[in-house]
Write a sequence for this structure.
């Protein structure tokens, strides 16, 4: 009995997601559509169909990298709400490297572009990181505001100096074909970005859980006073974790260009930076669970389009479901087995058993 | 550009635009001040503005009168703040996460529901709104008269609310309690103040105020609802809370500063078509960051903001 209840508590995130989908069903019904048909189309399209899976992986790549961009600073106690802007800056630097650097072998150029993207995102994160570390200015607000500046900067770049000749819409020239990321599923858009994202998630997990660098980042996040007392530079850890987060977001932007769009577009990111916060939260800021969270949200995003075509439910319903998922999962976190009535009653029963056993011994010596 | 300063009508127009642009942000920032003073981060202001705007449009559309729109808009704002109160105050979930969830949810929900409710015509309908009422005498003062006293009801409500919240915050027992709960909830609790009840009240009121900001957008400014019409105003309001040092008056001036930047931005955009417009669009955001950096002395937020309070913590 207690085992079953304990299992119920252990899988609470799953129940929370189901609750969110249930409320989402009510929203879909309010829109005058059949929720079962809508969900069937969504999940079948996202996870059970070849091209749908490919689209899920395409969406998963920026979601996972942006999620990691939030996870890493979060471990040091910082909220990186600026992944969106860092994605744009990363994409800008990568595109500049792709278009204007002298010719070199394709594979090398891809690596150079990736590094450029990481530098772009990292530099954009350096500003809030510096302000936080040296002037104690709230990083939430600075990263938030810098998103708007970043997005407009790229908007200026692609409608001005970088705009492709004769383009009807603000975008840059196309990057040459050797720089396109290899596809991982034939005849689809699914590109290497998602594999790199998973690789980085594993690497970050390893660094955070198994190395002294990770240990000190976690210590700074949990207890900066103790970290300082132990001789760790709190400032340096704050700066480097946020800059590393920015670099990861920059990579997310880089692979949107190298893997999917092949150009830098005006307003190309569909809020992936903000979705990254959701990924980080759903994963409990654990890099490996971030893979699952990004897969789930990527599936929602890719399935949404299929659902819209099949059942006519607008894709915006997926934003609502995503918000509901966060609210329900957040609520579920407050329910802990150890603090529940069940655990209480279970302990009481054990105590009774123990008392009876003790009494039995005394009565029958 | 200089003509704005020399020509009284132009100056008056310019200041009126600045005020109009800052009004929704002021409402939201007042909510932010209230919520953060009681110890709860409200990153969800953006979503609450959106909820208020949507409510105002729905109410105004079906009842045909802006007053009903106003009531529904404020109601939606309060409703939208409820998850933040439950998650952040009762359940101890991270308040920033709860706020972001509200923003994500409202972005999707209002976009989806506006298509359902307005049959895809959210961008074309025209709602009845509040019209400017000139206050006799005061409206005739040169330059500032028409700016301050030829406005609609909601702007006058804004003046009153700024004054009222300043008075409540610093001159009444309620305000003292709110500040006590935000600075040292344990001490406040010991003194017999119910921490959760006060925080609930502040968070829900802050939702209502942000909702009022949304109402202003729909009922006084644009007269229709469009997807994501809050466009970052809630985030600017958050910056204004910090710049204004968690005081209603300070927040008011911070918001007016943003309003002036925004109005300047619009003017510069029209006056200088050869300069890329993005340079002007980033102006309010850049100014807020610079203002945060240039703040004389360090801003000290309420000591217990963002922290969950539990009576019996182990």
């Amino acid at each position: 009995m207690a085992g079953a209840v304990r299992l119920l508590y252990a899988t609470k995130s799953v129940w929370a997601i189901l609750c969110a989908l249930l409320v989402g069903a009510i929203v879909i019904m309010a829109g005058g559509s059949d929720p079962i048909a809508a969900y069937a189309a969504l999940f079948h399209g996202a996870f059970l169909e070849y091209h749908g899976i490919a689209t899920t992986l395409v969406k998963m790549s920026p979601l996972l990298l942006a999620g990691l961009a939030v996870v890493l600073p979060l471990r040091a106690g910082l909220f990186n709400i600026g992944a969106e802007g860092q994605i744009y800056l990363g994409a800008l630097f990568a595109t500049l490297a792709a278009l204007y650097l002298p010719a070199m072998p394709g594979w090398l150029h891809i690596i150079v572009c990736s590094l450029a993207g990481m530098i772009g995102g990292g530099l954009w994160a350096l500003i809030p990181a510096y302000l936080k570390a040296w002037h104690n200015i709230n990083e939430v607000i600075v990263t938030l505001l810098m998103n708007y500046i970043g997005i407009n900067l790229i908007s200026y770049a692609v409608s001005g100096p970088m705009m492709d000749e004769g383009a009807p819409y603000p975008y840059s020239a196309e990057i040459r074909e050797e720089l396109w990321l290899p596809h991982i599923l034939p005849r689809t858009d699914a590109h290497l970005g998602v594999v790199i994202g998973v690789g980085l998630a594993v690497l970050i997990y390893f660094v955070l859980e198994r190395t002294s660098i990770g240990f000190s980042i976690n210590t700074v996040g949990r207890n900066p006073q103790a970290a300082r007392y132990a001789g760790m530079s709190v400032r340096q850890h704050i700066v480097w974790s946020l800059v590393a987060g920015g670099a990861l977001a920059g990579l997310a932007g880089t692979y949107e260009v190298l893997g999917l769009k092949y150009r830098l577009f005006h307003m190309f990111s569909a809020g992936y930076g903000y979705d990254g916060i959701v990924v980080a939260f759903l994963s409990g800021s654990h890099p490996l669970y971030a893979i699952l969270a990004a897969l789930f949200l990527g599936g929602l995003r890719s399935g949404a389009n299929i659902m819209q075509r099949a059942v006519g439910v607008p894709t915006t319903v997926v934003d609502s479901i995503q918000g509901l998922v966060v609210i329900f999962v957040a609520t579920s976190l407050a329910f802990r087995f150890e603090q529940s009535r069940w655990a209480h009653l279970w302990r009481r029963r054990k105590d009774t058993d123990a008392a009876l056993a003790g009494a039995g011994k005394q009565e029958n010596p | 550009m200089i003509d704005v300063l020399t020509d009284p009508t132009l100056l008056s127009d310019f200041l009126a635009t600045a005020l109009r642009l800052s009004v929704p942000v002021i409402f939201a920032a007042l909510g932010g001040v209230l919520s953060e003073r009681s110890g709860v981060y409200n990153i969800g202001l953006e979503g609450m503005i959106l909820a208020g705007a949507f409510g105002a449009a729905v109410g105004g559309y079906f009842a045909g009168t802006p007053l009903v729109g106003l009531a529904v808009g404020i109601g939606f704002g309060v409703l939208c703040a409820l998850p933040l109160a439950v998650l952040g105050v009762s359940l101890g979930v991270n308040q920033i996460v709860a706020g972001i969830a509200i923003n994500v949810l409202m972005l999707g929900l209002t976009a989806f529901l506006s298509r359902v409710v307005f049959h895809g015509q959210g961008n074309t309908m025209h709602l009845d709104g509040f019209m400017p009422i000139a206050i006799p005498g005061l409206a005739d003062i040169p330059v500032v008269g028409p700016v301050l006293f030829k406005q609609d009801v909601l702007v006058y409500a804004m003046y009153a609310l700024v004054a009222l919240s300043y008075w409540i915050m610093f001159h009444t027992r309620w305000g003292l309690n709110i500040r006590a709960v935000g600075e040292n909830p344990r001490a406040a609790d010991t003194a017999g103040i119910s921490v959760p009840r006060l925080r609930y009240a502040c968070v829900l009121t802050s939702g209502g105020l942000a909702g009022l900001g949304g109402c202003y957008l729909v009922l006084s400014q644009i007269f229709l609802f469009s997807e994501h019409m809050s466009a970052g105003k809630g985030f600017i309001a958050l910056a204004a809370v910090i710049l204004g040092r968690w005081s209603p008056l300070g927040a008011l001036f911070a918001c007016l500063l943003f309003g002036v930047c925004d109005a300047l931005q619009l003017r510069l955009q029209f006056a200088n078509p050869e300069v890329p417009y993005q340079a002007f669009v980033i102006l309010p955001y850049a100014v807020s960051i610079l203002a945060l950096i240039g703040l004389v002395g360090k801003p000290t937020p309420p000591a217990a903001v963002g922290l969950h309070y539990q009576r019996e913590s182990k």
In short: Residues 265 and 280 of chain B are 5 Å apart (CA to CA). The mean pLDDT of chain B is 87. The first helix of chain B runs from residue 3 to 6. The radius of gyration of chain B is 20 Å.
